[in-house]
Amino acid sequence: MTTLLLVEDDLDLAGNIVDYLALEDFDCDHASNGVAALNFLAENEYAVVILDINLPRLDGLSVCERLREKGDDTPVIMLTARDQLDDKLAGFAKGADDYLVKPFAMAELVARLQALSLRRSGQVKQLRCGELCVDVNGKTATLAGEPVKMSPTAFIVLEQLVRAYPAPVSREMLSQAVWGENRPDSNSLKVHIHHLRKALGKESGLDVQSATGVGFKLVSGAQ
Known about the structure:
The chain is α/β, with parallel strands linked by helices. Helices cover 43% and strands 24% of the residues. The protein has helices at residues 11-23, 34-43, 60-69, 85-93, 106-121, 152-164, 171-179, 186-200, and strands at residues 2-7, 26-31, 48-52, 76-80, 98-101, 126-129, 132-135, 140-143, 146-147, 169-170, 206-211, 215-220. The strands form three sheets. A five-stranded parallel β-sheet has the order 2-1-3-4-5. The protein has a four-stranded antiparallel β-sheet with strand order 6-7-8-9, covered by helices on one side. The longest helix is centred in the middle third of the chain and has 16 residues, at 106-121. 37% of the residues are buried.
């Protein structure tokens, strides 16, 4: 069973998350403030940390920053009601790996947790979506066994979308994966999305669609 740390001061929400994740074979420790979270992290190892920003005693951004300062690379999903770009960028700057805005679908949280926990364990070598196979180590993709030609940047975008499938990936998360902190204007990402769509082709039954107010998601005709 995969062990997570949930840091959330809303006890009702925390209880719902813990109960739902238990059904998905995740075991959750729970901290209700930032100081308690650091104590848990000092004494235990976790596959992923689900970290709210607005916490008593020590806010989530500070918790994430202290975690990274200690050299701890445990994946962190920021969980918050803030939907402003500056807040998201601040989270990524402190070392967050992903970002979910409340309210969210539990299924999306599970999809992101599964992707991050597998990446953490080093188990992911190939990702699949129907007849699409993404070789993470070889940085190549095939459709029905045939190579898919695309740029290295388009491959990074594809990898992120397949990891999260069928959930959407935020524009900020895609930009972070491709460019890190040195991000160009937003049109650059759209250009790479366009090239990725062309590389997949209509015959594949796969498409990259815009998720309103979120980012982009991979859609299969088999859905």
